[in-house]
């Protein structure tokens, strides 16, 4: 397998549009890297430059220390799996997987060995004689993976490989891909829109916006310590709640005022607000829905972090409930236990877990805490 290095990678399309700006990333052998970001942020363009399907306008792409910018796609030792897996309909599963190797004039017995090994890994052994139309979506996607595996590439690139599958199959395939990563010890770069795929599959996630990398980190670190307002809002579902809050420093007391609510900042969170000179300024206060509590005991223990509002929407999702309400004209979400007595129209009291708050500079949108 392989390590990759992207140094100052740029993409300017012929119409002058700059889709990727100064992309820097070192990918270690066996890493599972996820590119996420809103539609049009440059994920696929970056992946296609690595594959050699798009020219690189600036910067250097190295695979195992060798510059690859001008190397033909077929000579990069990379396999790409797309969302529309484009199997040959007239060929059996076996022949679909064997096709690329036949073209390369690989000896027949070697092809047979590789196809059967890939079929074993992907649990396709019983389906080798079938044509694609006699397969389910998930099985077809596994054949597409099989086609990539038999080539034994240095790097796998996957562009939303599961987006055409229904929700249940997606979960199954996600587990398959995770196992595959472990079994093959492969270096994988994977593009997705899907939060859950990103959080569960990635060893590291690259969050992009408008062609610019915002943050590269483990799923856990991205969730707990986003570097700016965009990443905080993009990672996590339902998304983090944001509200404007005025900082007040009074001796050693620090409070955040949101409309009529005054929230006391705990000792662990004061320093950044004081040292940053935020006294009297408005910041963006962030709190994840699971850190907004409706339980009586939590509220009783946190009298200085209480927010009152009327429930607008009650959503039961089985194992949890989402409650939607407004604070100072901003919609908020609380993720609470299904035993909650609260329903649409109820006057509700919530307490924020102030140890879990985030704050962002209103101008730069960078994280303060
Ligand atoms: P999605 O999640 O919707 O697939 P993406 O993050 O993968 O989006 P890209 O496909 O990389 O985004 O596109 C990045 C930007 O480059 C988009 O604004 C797109 O419109 C633009 N773009 C893509 N291909 C071309 C092209 N051939 N010429 C000009 N602009 C292009």
From TrEMBL:
| Record has Metal-binding as a keyword | no
Note whether Transport occurs among the keywords. yes
Q: What Gene3D superfamilies does the entry give?
A: 2.40.50.100, Nucleic acid-binding proteins (2.40.50.140), P-loop containing nucleotide triphosphate hydrolases (3.40.50.300)
Q: Which domain of life is it from?
A: Bacteria
Among SUPFAM superfamilies, the record links this protein to: MOP-like, P-loop containing nucleoside triphosphate hydrolases
Q: Show the Pfam families listed in the entry.
A: ABC_tran, OB_MalK, TOBE
Q: Which InterPro entries match?
A: AAA+_ATPase (IPR003593), ABC_transporter-like_ATP-bd (IPR003439), ABC_transporter-like_CS (IPR017871), ABC_transpr_MalK-like (IPR015855), ABC_transpr_MalK/UgpC-like (IPR047641), Mo/tungstate-bd_C_term_dom (IPR008995), NA-bd_OB-fold (IPR012340), OB_MalK-like (IPR040582)
Specify the protein name. Answer: Carbohydrate ABC transporter ATP-binding protein (CUT1 family)
